[in-house]
Amino acid sequence: MRLAKHLAHSGVASRRAAERLIADGRVRVEGEVVTDPARDVGAGSAVSVDGRLLEGPERRVVYALNKPVGILSTARDTHGRPTVIELVPDTDLRLYPVGRLDADSAGLILLTNDGELANRLTHPRHEVPKTYRARVRGGPVGARALAALRAGVELEDGPTAPARVRRLAPDTLELTIHEGRNRQVRRMCEAAGHPVLELTRIAFGSLRLGDLAPGASRRLNAREVERLRSL
Description:
231 residues; Structural Genomics Hypothetical 15.5 Kd Protein In mrcA-pckA Intergenic Region, Chain A; Alpha-Beta Plaits; 4-stranded antiparallel sheet
């Protein structure tokens, strides 16, 4: 197995983050610093990260969490602010978030130690759809704004792909996108003349938020995980 994949399966980080760890010289195999993420390692190889010896692959799990506003979508924060990891009780596994939400947004986020699945769900080439409910200002959302969002809007980092959009109420939209740019839905709505007041992710691929309470989490079953893999 390639070294980067081995780290991902061991729950250290996603595949891309593992490649960065390796390139930075933080990984050793049998005591030797290795900077090639494609280096083959055997099941019994002694692999360490920052001097800590890995114990081998953890059981792979995926949790769904309803992130409240004000919680950071990161594994740890240097300023001691609350993170999504702290909301998953009674687990000693090294989880990391998939599909980040900014602190001002709420809703469905995934936490896993399965680096391969995390890479599948977040890599742009897979175009995994994510659905949001946005309450906006600027008056009732009219046909012109809906058409702009459905066609794709021009942002400072280039035009967006078309979004699937429907109006749930005069000031509330449901939008589905498959890109993952920073604060994309907020920027799209602002470009269409309707800045976001409240934003909640309600679906990630085939998985929906459902009635999961704010701050609550649940472990996905094997069928749900397999559906995510198939995306």
